């Protein structure tokens, strides 16, 4: 079978591997479609903090089922979450599942960008396998995990109808947040990016204003848009540290900044701590997702409340994955998807 493995910085290769063998407590999934995520690009470019395994926005079919797994059937369409918490540690018992030390220790074998991948027993035991209806579109199912991540962030920052929300980064994550906010009745949304193609796309999705910090006076434009106050909420859906600094400059007194994008390892940000203190600015990070938000994402996508498939701009075969990674890293795509046979 074919799989895409990382051997170094920007050294991803489509290789031939044996189909993984499973034990009686595992599942073998045949990949149907897999989205290219921002974390895949980070891993491809060498800037990663989680294991360098590519492909987790994946939907497929149960191709082979371990004989001890009576709750599933071969041929069922499934989404599988690549990380699961232990559910019994200090963090899990307090509901902080993504902080569990075990969370990133399990993954697909060899990866999600493969014709077939093995689902370890621990993922199955911890309810990381979600059965989908046969008519659930593949192009929508690949957004389950990224939309769930967005839902977790929105659940943490709790925006209200009427809020002015500024989204830094009009890539797939930022645009999903835009769609999610609009589904909640929040329509005063600004999108900020240095990629004009993505800004134009955000306008088509209902963004109220779009700004390029390279050519626009960001602070003035946001102040004018928000009656001089600043944004109620700024969501940083990019790895750019400069975007974090800009968010601190455009959020209102008492406002909230959500750190959603993953900055490069060991990067530092210039922070006027006195300004944050006096203005009582709240900074809330949101990393990954849990089974709760995955169920919510499946519900929103399954009922067509959010038509995330409108974000797909490029489609590739598995053996074209390197091209997909290269184009995505350059920002030439909105959302790239890899398809199996």
Description:
- This protein is an alpha/beta fold.
- The chain folds into 2 domains: 168 residues, Alpha-Beta Complex (Quinone Oxidoreductase, Chain A, domain 1); 134 residues, NAD(P)-binding Rossmann-like Domain (Rossmann fold, 3-Layer(aba) Sandwich), CATH 3.40.50.
- It is built from 11 helices and 15 strands.
- Strands 3, 4, 5, 6, 7, 14 and 15 form a 7-stranded mixed sheet that branches. Strands 10-9-8-11-12-13 form a 6-stranded parallel sheet, sandwiched between helices.
- The chain is globular.
Write the CATH architecture name of the largest domain: Alpha-Beta Complex
**Low-confidence residue ranges:** none
Mean of all residue-level pLDDT scores: 97
What coarse outline follows from CA principal-axis ratios? globular
The percent of residues in helical segments reads 25-40%
CATH topology of the largest domain: Quinone Oxidoreductase, Chain A, domain 1
Strand content: 15-25%
The helix tally amounts to: 11
- What is the fourth-level CATH superfamily of the largest domain? Medium-chain alcohol dehydrogenases, catalytic domain
């Amino acid at each position: 079978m074919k799989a895409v493995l990382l051997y170094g910085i920007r050294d991803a290769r489509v290789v031939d591997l044996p189909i993984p063998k499973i034990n009686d407590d595992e599942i073998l999934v045949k990949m149907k479609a897999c989205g290219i995520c921002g974390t895949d690009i980070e891993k491809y470019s060498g800037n990663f903090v989680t294991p360098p395994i590519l492909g987790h926005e994946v939907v497929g079919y149960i191709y082979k089922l371990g004989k001890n797994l009576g709750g599933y059937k071969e041929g069922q369409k499934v989404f599988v979450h690549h990380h699961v918490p232990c559910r019994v540690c200090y963090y899990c018992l307090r509901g902080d599942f993504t902080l569990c030390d075990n969370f990133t220790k399990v993954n697909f074998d060899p990866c999600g960008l493969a014709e077939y991948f093995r689902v370890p027993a621990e993922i199955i035991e911890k309810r990381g396998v979600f059965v989908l209806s046969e008519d659930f579109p593949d192009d929508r199912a690949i957004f389950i995990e990224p939309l769930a991540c967005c839902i977790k962030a929105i659940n943490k920052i709790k925006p209200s109808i009427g809020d002015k929300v500024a989204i830094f980064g009009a890539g797939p994550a930022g645009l999903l947040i835009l769609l999610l906010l609009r589904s909640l009745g929040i329509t005063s949304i600004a999108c900020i990016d240095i990629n004009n193609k993505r800004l134009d796309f955000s306008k088509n999705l209902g963004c109220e204003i779009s700004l390029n910090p390279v050519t626009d006076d960001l602070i003035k434009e946001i102040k004018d848009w928000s009656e001089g106050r600043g944004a109620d909420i700024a969501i940083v859906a990019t790895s750019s540290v400069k975007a974090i600094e800009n968010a601190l400059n455009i959020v209102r007194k008492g406002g909230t900044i959500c750190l959603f994008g993953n900055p490069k390892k060991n990067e530092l940000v210039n922070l006027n701590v006195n300004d944050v203190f006096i203005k009582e600015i709240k900074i809330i990070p949101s990393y990954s997702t849990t089974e709760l938000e995955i169920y919510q994402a499946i519900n929103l996508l399954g009922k067509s409340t959010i038509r995330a498939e409108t974000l797909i701009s490029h489609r590739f075969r598995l053996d074209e994955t390197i091209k997909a990674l290269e184009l995505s890293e350059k920002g030439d795509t909105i959302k790239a998807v890899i398809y199996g046979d």
